[in-house]
């Protein structure tokens, strides 16, 4: 999870650099390439997954809501800084386009000091000691055996669950309505105006 987030941040910094240099290069294609790279990045689902996995159970819902909060905050900051009096002027708009690289840079610098998520270490890597060490680093010293037991139960449940490929998921009648709902919701997000903002 952590490595994927770090790679994603590198992608965002490259995209921001490309968009920021588009005026100097006099190339609108660079803006298109940079925006495409931003769209390909996996910021939102990775944030949800990593933050949800490193949070204690009692704070997990709150931690997962931070993504929506920062998404809204980012839109508000973008609208405010996009005013002509700030970065929306003809000379400063490349800085506005490149500003998406700043949060990625902050995360790229800070994330190496955080451990890998405990469920990932235990469920996918089978590293129980690494899991305990990560839990102590994230949540402090104390009795965390109940959380480790929960992760072990989830791992046991996952062993008995068949993981479907994308094609099998599409063909499975039991998941058809859920799949329709996800596709409809995801498609309508594109119509809400967030891309224009």
UniProtKB/TrEMBL annotation:
It is found in: Membrane. Keywords: Membrane, Signal, Transmembrane, Transmembrane helix. GO terms for cellular component: plasma membrane. Pfam families: Sugar_tr. It is a multi-pass membrane protein. GO terms for biological process: D-glucose import; dehydroascorbic acid transport. Residues 1-197 form the Major facilitator superfamily (MFS) profile domain. Residues 1-27 form the signal peptide. One of its GO terms (molecular function) is D-glucose transmembrane transporter activity. This is GTR5 protein. The gene is Slc2a5_0.
